[in-house]
Write a structure and sequence with these properties.
The protein has seven helices and two strands. It is mainly alpha-helical and 191 residues long. It has a two-stranded antiparallel ribbon. The mean pLDDT is 84.
Amino acid sequence: TSETGAGLLLGLISLIAVPISLIVSPLAARHDSQSGWIVGLGGLGIAGILGLLIAPAAAPLLWSMLVGLGMSVFSLALTVIALRARDAQDTASLSGMAQGFGYLLAGVGPFMFGLLHHVSGGWTVPWLMMVAVYLVQTAAGALALGGLSKGVTTREMAAAYASFARGGIYTTPRTYTEVRDHNGNVILDNK
């Protein structure tokens, strides 16, 4: 029953996260700032992870619900990209940068969780990694939202992050609104 119970609690996390994700983004989009939503949802996720870490048997339903609420910040991250971009090119640049880094980290996360469990022989170190991820996510989300109101465009921010992939070399961002094939036919028009 322990494995069955764990599976049901994992299902509960998704059962909470998915519908809340559909509700949170439109609610948050109605406000001038989404920082409070990001910090609040991140705080709920941190509380859930800490509960699972410190007293897993005390309130497993509550911890799972809190983690599910914390996970609903994903849809808000996608919403913030659209809300903060000034135009379609900015949206594409920011989305490509944020989702590229985000999915890279998300892909490494389960592997690291399992590796830390294997190396440490317990669950404390992997759960502490989760707390660290939540803290970074919450802080970065809250701080990034103020950055675009200070004169930095989304395109410039994406180009700055892209310099990591180019060995620290910054390239001035360019936006293409039209792409033509070798015969001169338009194959992409973003006007």
